[in-house]
Amino acid sequence: MSEHTYKIVEIVGSSPESVEQAIENAIADAARTVRNIRWFEVTETRGHVEGGRVAHYQVGLKIGFTLEES
Fold first, then answer.
1. Whether pTM exceeds 0.70
2. One pLDDT digit (tens) per residue for the chain, 70 residues
3. How many CB atoms sit inside 10 A of residue 33's CB?
4. How far apart are CA 11 and CA 60, in angstroms?
5. Among 18, 4, 5, 8, which Cα is nearest to 43's?
6. Phi and psi dihedrals of 51, rounded to 5?
7. How many CB atoms lie within 10 A of CB 61?
């Protein structure tokens, strides 16, 4: 295994469907501007309630990506 140095950023994904979809949305959006994403960690989960039902999920993530060699 090669040696790597990682940078970590925090993001929040959301979805009206599920926690899993909120994670997928966050990673997909981050991948548009951040190269070399290698892992993620869920740091918090929360949601919005309307009329006694879950209306929206939000998931806080840390994503790690490798730094490019110069």
1. yes
2. 567 889 999 999 999 999 999 999 999 999 999 999 999 999 999 999 999 999 999 999 999 999 877 6
3. 6
4. 6
5. 8
6. 60, 35
7. 19
Tokens of 11: 């993001």
| Tokens encoding 33 | 């501007």
Six token digits for residue 63: 């994503």
Per residue, the 3-state secondary structure of the chain, as one string, reads: CCCCCEEEEEEEEEECCCHHHHHHHHHHHHHCCCCCEEEEEEEEEEEEEECCEEEEEEEEEEEEEECCCC
Q: Token pair for residue 41? A: 């960690």
Residue reference for tokens 């939000």: 58
